[in-house]
Amino acid sequence: MVERVRVKALTPPGHVRAPWYLRGKEGVIERPLGHFANPEQLAYGLKADTKPLYRVRFRMAEIWGEGAENPDDTLDAEIYGHWLEKVDTHAP
Amino acid sequence: MVWTGRAVLPSLLTMSDTTGRRWHDMGGQDAGPVPMDGHDFALWEKRVDALMVLCGQKGLFTVDGLRRALEDMGEDAFESMSYYERWIAAVNQNLVEGGAYTLEELGERMQEIAARGSTYGEAQSDG
Amino acid sequence: MPHDHHDHFHHEGMSPSGHPYRADNDTPLTYWQRMEIAVRELLVEKGHLTPAEIAAQIEAMDARSPANGAAVVARAWTDPAFKARLLENASEASREMGFDIGPLNLIAVENTADTHNLIVCTLCSCYPRNLLGLPPDWYKTRAYRSRAVREPRTVLREFGLELPDHVTVRVHDSTADMRYVVLPARPEGTEGMDEAQLAALVTRDSMIGTGLPHRP
User: Fold this and answer.
1) Which CATH class is domain C66-208?
2) Residue C154 and residue C165 in contact, taking contact as beta carbons nearer than 8 Å
């Protein structure tokens, strides 16, 4: 089953690995990658929790809209689980 | 040495504007043609790279600590300093924060090194 | 501190790759070079590192080059079972060939007749360095980092690569713990070639996605 997700459109300061151009954008989980130490804690020398990491695939049309160079090309990025929210595909 | 774990406030001054987007987060921005020129790495650059890798292996700090320091250095540093100049600055910042040595020790050593000679080769401790 | 380790093994002034080091040993000492020397000496004196470890790390990094990746690609072109293992777990497949890639988490992405893959790191300079060696300078530039995710076809054109419309471009932004290497498609006309001959066709850029392998 295809799992649709949206990157949270959060804007905290400091070291995060969710790229700006993907925030608020919807994609599908291409594959789960396992659990990794949270870079948002490691960056400040703190003991880090582990977080699930996913490879998420986005259509260029979703990211860049009308201005996409080719709407059907894709972009894959690794996004930590705490930056993702599920998209309800059965919504009316 | 093990990290004592002190939080360092991220610099709020390194955002490119008030939206919260930070300067290093470049994906999708307008930019010119990709410059194709390159260079063979200098010995001092390879040493900086090796110091970073080894400090990571020894648990002195993490690559995320390096990136955080690079990001907090701001966009001017990206434009005005070379890649490994920024790296040694960020390596040093993490080591000072982690207590590997003090700024006093660093400052005195850098002064001593300047007195050894005027080139990188001459400034090694064995002359 | 002992003399630079390389002096014992290589021609004076030449890197292990046979290229000259940039002429920095006799140019005016910079502030940042002084910092590098100071940091290195302090770490050694305080027992965190040894000069031998630093020399060994430089040697290990110098030994990594696109030739390692090319050997992996050539093996995948000639051995279907290896190719399957590479696409399943590129780290293990690279180690299987004897390459010391450390803790690298590597994913291989395959170019086909209708798919072309391109690797970038928009946030910094993540690169499969433990397999391919250090990244080219252009990979770390603002221009590449900014544009590769929004106009990959235009960027590829600057590299001399024109992709037909029926080919889907898949861009991979190395945002976290994985690193990517492109498995380029085997060129036509290479049917009789052995692994070593095939490896010679594989360029660095073909494994980043900004180029194709040489044709025989």
Assistant:
1) alpha beta
2) no
- What one-character DSSP code corresponds to residue C17? T
CATH superfamily of B41-127: Nitrile hydratase, beta subunit (1.10.472.20)
pLDDT in tens, B85-105: 999 999 999 999 999 999 999
Whether C91 sits among the annotated catalytic residues: the reply is no
Please state the pTM of the whole predicted model: 0.90
The strand pair at C115-120 and A26-37 is best described as unpaired
How many CB pairs below 8 A link A and C?
A: 64
Q: Which domains are seen in chain A, by residue range?
A: 4-86 (2.30.30.50)
pLDDT given at position A92: 54
ipTM at complex level: 0.95
In the numeric block, which tokens belong to residue C80?
Answer: 């279907």
Q: How far is B58 from chain A (nearest CA, A)?
A: 14
